[in-house]
Amino acid sequence: MRILGIETSCDETGIAIFDDEKGLLAHELYSQVKLHADYGGVVPELASRDHVKKTIPLIKEALATAGLTPADLDGVAYTAGPGLVGALLVGATIGRSLAYAWNLPAVAVHHMEGHLLAPMLEEQPPEFPFVALLVSGGHTMMVDVKGIGEYEILGESVDDAAGEAFDKTAKLMGLDYPGGPLLSKLAEKGNAGRFKFPRPMTDRPGLDFSFSGLKTFTANTIRDNGDDEQTRADIAYAFQEAVVDTLAIKCKRALKQTGYKRLVIAGGVSANKHLRAQLETMMTNLKGEVFYPRTEFCTDNGAMIAYAGMQRLKNNETMDLGVKAHPRWPIDQLKPIADKEA
Length: 342
Ligand code: KG4
Ligand code: ZN
Known about the structure:
Layout: E1 2-7, E2 12-19, E3 23-31, H1 33-37, H2 44-66, E4 75-81, H3 85-101, E5 106-110, H4 111-117, E6 130-135, E7 140-147, E8 150-156, H5 162-172, H6 179-187, H7 212-225, H8 229-258, E9 262-266, H9 273-285, E10 289-291, H10 302-314
Parallel strand pairs: 1-4, 4-5, 6-9, 9-10
Antiparallel strand pairs: 1-2, 2-3, 6-7, 7-8
Bound molecules: 5'-O-[(R)-(carboxyoxy)(hydroxy)phosphoryl]adenosine (KG4) and zinc ion (ZN).
């Protein structure tokens, strides 16, 4: 089975073709980062318009790279939510229409299920069950994953998502959008121990997160200590350490609560080297394992959508002819898939 995946939920146009025997045959990505940089964040209308320009050319490119024609495909998967409604509608309209024109089934994919299943594209995919920490620009969630579509949300952010906290804090520090990776780079030059940031909501039971206070803490630290280059790096270090520590503490708690030994991290922030290193060490100590996607599949991409779409199509979940987008779509409303073999 060969599936075309289309991702347009935010500021990346991602297209891929996944084959269940041969693996990934092509994947193309166009990032709109430059388009939004002047505004310091994603401008939804500009995002939609740019997806309109890029989606079809990238689909043509992916088919050419894979040496395929539409007749070689078995289905079209597109992100239907959650995300920016205009951006989602571009991918959903193109995906649904192409499937109709090519006489193929179409399937609507949940963006966060795409992230959650992205580690399945790697050589050593995790087996079920596992705890998944989903950390992106829009969501932070701890999920008990018993199988595909069997998701129980154990905790989530009550305010900013982890990626959003990175981006907002980076903006405060004068870094460009999206600031997460830049803040992380700045932190590499920082000294440990100069500043100590709080670990929000770790002093009480539960698996929810709150990151918005760290932004204020950063602003106050800059106000009291200035913003020379070394101070900025030291602040970046302390901020990153606080986010990573908080995530690690909650992962450990979720593993204890579920009794699982496998941890999956996915979503944009799972590209963070410090987070990966700390969770690796923690899981070695706990005699468990941690899984994450290769760096390019941590952030938004078409490969994860093609993969997730294939699982759904194999479960005979197809869309009618309507074009639908779900800007808000709780992950625990997805249907379980009977066959757990991914
Ligand atoms: O998953 P993603 O591409 O988009 C959403 O679904 O939201 O995640 C993007 C987020 C951004 O907030 C970005 O700053 C953050 O992931 N991010 C990082 C790193 N790379 C991406 N945050 C911290 N460290 C990184 N290395
Ligand atoms: Zn995403």
